[in-house]
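Quick illustration for those who missed Monday's session on complexes.
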Amino acid sequence: MKALDELTFDNRFARLGDAFSTHVLPDPLDAPRLVVASNAAMALLDLDPAVAETPVFAELFGGHKLWAEAEPRAMVYSGHQFGGYTPQLGDGRGLLLGEVYNQAGEHWDLHLKGAGMTPYSRMGDGRAVLRSSIREFLASEALHALGIPSSRALCVIGSDTPVWREKQERGAMVLRLAHSHIRFGHFEYFYYTKKPEQQAELAEHVLNLHYPECREQPEPYLAMFREIVERNAEMIAKWQAYGFCHGVMNTDNMSILGITFDFGPFAFLDDFDAHFICNHSDHEGRYSFSNQVPIGQWNLSALAQALTPFISVDALKEALGLYLPLYQAHYLDLMRRRLGLTTAEDDDQPLVERLLKLMQNSGVDYTLFFRRLGDESAALAVARLRDDFVDLAGFDAWADQYKARVARDGDYSEAQRRERMHAVNPLYILRNYLAQNAIAAAESGDYSEVRRLHEALSKPFEEQPGMEQYAQRPPDWGKHLEISCSS
Ligand code: AMP
Ligand code: MG
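Prediction with adenosine monophosphate bound:
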């Protein structure tokens, strides 16, 4: 276990120089205080969880202090936002404080979001509010606990610093961890600004640091792009299988590592709704729940375009062609497991599709349905769940097919079925209304609710005593909350 001053830095991105990022110091928050910290994320840095409670922790992650070896940098990138190209973006309110490596030799970027103005702030104030910082913190750690690749969050620091959004709010900072903060938009920036040398440097950096195994391949850059395609297919399959809606899948928010990144007005589905739009400024539903699948491919095509100096167009097209079949395979595999199936049959895809259609028409809770399906034998579970459906005849027909399919799948006990299904079907997910309750308490100075919710979400598959309130359907007021984009 390390103390805070024992972190070891190796700032590899900063060494790329001023064409890639600008030195900026964090702008400290007034009266910084710990809102919540993740012990699991602390462990990634070998930090003793107790240090989170010390005043110096809030000072470091509230922008008052820096390690001598930290080299805070604002990164430059660009990206396609809602389909249109924005030639220059960058860390407008976040800073890469430095890269730390742990005892296992893993490097982690320390990225402080809400750290003040930078050359890339455009019209913004460089700040993040408490509400959005809590949401990012909870989502990062919840996704990770669900087994969905994501950036991580070490802590949220609250403050007295006033920040103006639709109303006056308080500034906060969230310390984000990831092996890299390089986005698709980094490659687009150097491609569209016609800086081939820097672009080559960036590509070498990503290849050497993050895809070293691709070096062994005859065409290392192509191998790397293929791997990025594969990781995106798998990540988005997991989003779809667990009902996660990212909300702002612009290419500047897509990580080069294939992890969930840069949270905006995201949501987990309550009732199943393929057309759900979580971002209320997304009027056309470009980033609706079901559109995430084709948008994943669109974003990869945008990256492919930026990689044309390194890889032939034919090879890029071929690699892009891997996305959909891989997505479908991962998705179906996960959905089979969610249904408790251990074997594969040709008709499993329509079995899943028919179920989702029924759930959509009846507004069935997406998470609780699968959890309850695993509570008991298939026959007993479907008999109990039947009441949630409006189209009873439709559900009965599906249930008959499902029971027959389960019978063909294998001969296992109810206990085995429950154990297997509960290990993939969470009881606790980050419902918008739960986040909202925790935020309301935190805004009035009570952080206990955020901490408890974080605790429940860190073991989503395990029933935890005293956490029953997090395993309920939302009340009516909590179903269609509008989450502001002004974060
Ligand atoms: P986002 O929608 O949060 O991914 O941000 C898109 C771009 O706007 C990025 O370049 C951000 O750094 C920048 N940005 C967002 N909010 C602010 C803010 N409050 N101040 C400065 N820049 C911001
Ligand atoms: Mg962003």
